[in-house]
Amino acid sequence: MEHPEWSARFDDSFVAIDFETATSSRESACAVAAVRFEKGTVVDSVVSLIQPPGNEYDPFNISIHGIKPRDTQSSPRFPDVWRDIEAFTEGSLVIAHNTSFDMSVLRRSSEYYEYRPGGFAFACTYRLSRSHMPEMGMWRLDVLADEFAIPLTHHDPLSDAEAAGRLWLALPRSAALSHRSLLDRHNYRLGQFDVLDYLPFSNAASASAKQPAWHQYSAASTIDPGGRLYGSHVAVTGKLAPMNREEAFDAIGRVGGIPVKRPNRATDYLVVGSINLAVVGPDGMTGQHKKAYELQQAGHAIQIIDEDDFHCLLADEPL
What we know:
Nucleotidyltransferase, domain 5, 6-stranded mixed sheet, 4-stranded parallel sheet
């Protein structure tokens, strides 16, 4: 497997980032932090508040990170802040915990302000932890920080970014492997960020996910009996960025899957999209997600997957 722009220095030299948002909308970035690691040591960091659109906040988001409208009423807007972060990260591998969130915030904020950020390679400690430590069952940053004795003040962007970086260092060391060997073991390729040509950090065999896979099937006229999801029961929770629920169910059906409204003992997959924390609470799990986890713990073969995995299944690529 090729790792785009891979360099041995990425093992211990990289930049870890973290965003916080003011509302459930991904374009509502209200803070960002970046921490530079060189040879496994923190050498520099930058953190900034961001004025979100309209300086509007949801009370629940405030309860999570403590940032309030008065804190950002005079703060710079996203493009001005990201220019500084971009200069800070230039030439580095970027690490985040749950890049489906952080890269989505970056993409949506850029689209909102019609700003074109530069590209970079990135990796996700959430996805890598999930593949490397499936027995954990939950891979939130606070859970993994406890597992690896990493100091963390959760939802403080600077602390979250540093913890994600330390987790990136800890994962291969726990298996006595290099980063490249660990990525090879789980078939991961580095993500490539660009607002117009985006590839997720993924262990799919092909890089064909540049276009959401559901577009390849939404025009199909017949169900494919050879499809990867043929005969599989699939539930969806949360919001899927490129499609609404009806389109997701249509895409499932056209590759032979059977959409279901909620997980049960016969369910094969639960797809977890972006979640409104104001609705589900600080654990970040919907009722369907909790039910699927309970079924897993009881020995049922339900797989809990994210949006990137879902697109891989639609495109008949391995997870």
